[in-house]
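Q: Hi! First time asking for a complex rather than a single chain. Here are the components, and I think there are two in total. Is that enough to go on?
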Amino acid sequence: MVTRTEEEEVNRLENQVENGGGGVWEYLCLVHKLKLRRSDMVLKHGLSILNDSKKRSALGPEEWTLYEQVAVAAMDCQSIDVAKDCIKVLQRKFPGSKRVGRLEAMLLEARGLWSEAENAFSSLLEENPFDQVVHKRRVAMAKAQGNTSAAIDWLNKYLDLFMADHEAWRELAEIYVSLQMYKQAAFCYEELILSQPTVPLYHLAYADVLYTLGGLENLQTAKKYYASTIALTGGKSTRALFGICLCTSAIGQLTKGRNKEDKESPELQSLSAMALEKDYKQRAPGKLSVLSSTLRSLKI
Amino acid sequence: MGAGFLVGVIGVLILSHATYSTIQYRALLKITEEEFSGPPIDVVIELIVSLVLCLWAAMAAPGNFKSIHPQSEENRVVALPANLDFMIFNHRGKIFPLETELKLK
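A: Yes, that's all I need. Here is the structure of the assembled complex.
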């Protein structure tokens, strides 16, 4: 997870690195640790370290992970030659390594040679059928070819084996959302909330999915999850605040005319509307009128 | 540092004074040939005061406490990591190649 402090640190280091202020290695380590996708920066600055033999040897054994990191970044930037060179260096150092074999297969993938890449991954799987990364690469390959249903099949098979892999659950949820299969996506987000209950973004995504599904029961649950998002972010999530307002108005429309005895926490909507107004006043005073007209149209 | 550190120094000084008084007291007992039953009350008070002061210093001097609440401003999660294991390469970045002179020497 990327917390607020870590995000600030990354942005500060990125600025410093871009302006030639040093700290390149710290930046690359942080990007690796937080699993950020800044391939262009990693490629450019990682190469500047790798091409300087003094800096490179100062890294010690970390040198080889840097080669790997740069190779993947180069594939992501379609700098096939750089990736090839990095893999060659790694191959010379670790002949017969599976980790390097994986990189080679990924290179085939980056070049768009799907059947060759498939063969390479299959042979890697034959040697070690429980290699999680290779399983995931196959899913990604199916997705890259636009074959989403195959990707879903692979992912479901993979999740039967490795149920605790939250990244795979997240990927599956995102694929389902992209296909508008919200019921299945909701199931995946439930899994994610179970495995990482303190991440507000999963609560938010789950609430979004439930709101999209609609129906009184779903809307009420969605409202609860928006509320838990607000609790977990300390009230800083604008999306969740809007979600509360939308849910309340939708629930109000559905239950119009019925007895309103079971109305729960009526102050929640007015509080979130107030929080929104305060936030807008502080950060975007120009858009305050738009906000108040929107809230009025929701009849809050 | 600063005030906390000073408090710690005072605490350690009081502790060493208590030690010194105890040694003196035992020497006195040897001269008067009485049994040692316990330290005198002023030493006990000194020990308690120095304990409190040293505790205070140990909390205050090394640094500030950090929040453990997930919803606090420093700890709140603002982004999920990119799902790198599922990264795909045929995205629109292909059409905008980076500087081509990048090379591994």
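A: Residues 1-95 of chain A form one domain. Let me know if you'd like any chain examined more closely.
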